[in-house]
Amino acid sequence: MGRAAGPWAQIADALQFGFPTVRATAERPDMSYDRKNAGNGPLTPGWDGAAIDLGPGDFEVADVTKAIVVTAPGNVVCKPADAGEDITLTGLPAGYILPWHCSHIRKAGTSAALATVAG
Asked: CA-to-CA distance for 3 and 71, rounded, in angstroms?
């Protein structure tokens, strides 16, 4: 069996011998992340956040919240921003990020610890 040519050869080499160091060039610009100059749109990581306290009751999610992350496993009852009804998610692991922009997190039925991601 012959050696692969072109980009397949580079992939085969990387898998067999480890990934080579890649330098930025005009053809391959530097794609590193610079958090000081990154925007604060919905696709960037958050710059702030806080634990969600459901002790007083339902939590109203602020408009600046980019995401809700599960910090300790459990169930979550939430109302997506444009939904007519609540959604119950069960057995969520720590680190899970809710897939919707939510307007409320319900106290009743939520057993997971949660935090906001804002930016």
From this structure: 48
